[in-house]
Amino acid sequence: MSDTVMLKRVALVQYGLGQPPKLSTDGIPILRATNITRGKITEPGLLRARLEDLPLDRAPLLKEGEILVVRSGAYTGDSARITAKWAGSAPGYDLRVTPLAINSRYLAYALLGIAAQDQIKLVSSRAAQPHLNAEELGELQVWMPSSDEQRRIADFLDAETSRIDRLLALQTTVLERLDERESAIVDLAIDELIDRVGTTPFRRFIIAMDQGSSPQCDAVPASDDEWGVLKVSCLRPGSFFPDQNKRLPEDAVPDVRNEVREGDVLITRANTPQLVGSTAVVPAVRRKLLLSDKIFRVGLSPLLDAHYVAWIARGTRVRSFSSASSNGASQSMANIRFEEVKEWPIPHIDLPEQKRVVAELDRSRMQTDALRSRITRQLTLLAERRQALITAAVTGQFDVSTASGRGED
User: Fold this and answer.
1) In what residue span(s) does the Type I restriction modification DNA specificity domain sit (predicted)?
2) For residues 266 and 295, is the Cβ–Cβ distance under 8 A?
3) Is residue 203 part of a domain?
């Protein structure tokens, strides 16, 4: 087996731009950590800057074959190779690796392998926040087979990972179709009710409303015996996630009036335009969880079932109403006022029928969740297979020239 070498012996490791330049709606793409996902460059969140505003003397534009490595945060060490499509982009804050005496495609796979990721995790976790500098990345040990073997490994992995990626894409599409199907079922049920009984403003059924406060909290979740303040991510349409909270410091006095209880109806007043107004009923939950000032709690008239409200709020009518009536300083965060929540259109039917609608939609959701769970498990297994295959190939655990699938599309 060939020896390993330090990355800095076969590649140049440099820093990117550092502070972002003046941004523009057009111009050169700036590739950041948000655009790097498991070996691929993605477009969501892409920033741009004009060429004349870029410090090209300090951070030249990226070339095909270079590799960007995430420098800090939860995804420290994730990386992606610059393809022809992204050549000429600007590097963001992250590290840029320029292969010199090593095959570019082979190195890109080597950096994704478990052996490399374990080394990166070890050095980047020495601080409270994961962080990787150029010197540390340069000392990464990489298995260095012959040039011909590097090319064979890269060819093999190109073929095999492409096949797995196609399967991943198909399964992801199925998940998207399931979400669309579930949304269509909910909307159909709501539209049938509205066609039959019309709508009544939500305010007719509200007898109380409050919201919490947002004191300075620790940036970690509270344990079960500690007080925690709920984040807006604790709510998704129809779902409540109690672990999405921030620990209240020991010297802070909790306002027990803001403690959530089973059966509470919660609505987010601030979130992305797609999620603002997310509504859920609190299930059986532990004590010591507090409302933040970005979450409404609504007290309902006995004429309205809490779970029925949550299902109506998942429908496209209310979701669109919330998004359209929201306001905010950016496209990433929106706010709604309680006056707007009170105008939500609710089809008013009697309580027994409300419970029947809830039961039918719950059954449909259980069936969809069962399918979603199986597909998610398949996605996990495929991702694990991809990772294991890359790791085995770039550490010499098998001979790719005799492995099945070599050279296939």
Assistant:
1) 37-162
2) yes
3) no
- Kind and range of the H or E element at 265? strand 265-268
Close Cβ partners of 403 (under 8 Å, ≥ 6 residues apart)? 156
Across-strand partners of 40?
Answer: 37
Q: Is residue 288 located within the same domain as residue 384?
A: no
**φ, ψ at 290 (rounded to 5°):** -115, 145
SS3 track for 3-63: CEEEHHHHEEEEECCCCCCCCECCCEEEECHHHEECEEECCCCCEEECHHHCCCCCCCCCC
Edge-to-edge strand ranges of the sheet holding 295-300: 206-211, 295-300, 265-268, 279-281
* Domain harbouring 217, CATH code: 3.90.220.20
Look up residue 316 and give its DSSP letter: H
Residue found by looking up tokens 């410090």 in the block:
55
- What span, in angstroms and rounded, lies between the C-alpha atoms of 214 and 264? 19
Crossing angle for the helix pair 316-325 and 306-314, to the nearest 10 degrees: 70
Domain count of the chain? 3
Domain coverage including residue 298: 208-340
Residues 21 and 72 in one domain: yes
Tokens standing for 229?
A: 């303040």
* 16-60 residue pLDDT tens: 887 777 888 888 999 999 999 989 999 988 899 998 888 888 889
For 179, residues 6+ apart whose C-beta sits below 8 A from its C-beta are none
Residue in 279, 292, 284, 276 with CA at minimum distance from that of residue 230: 292
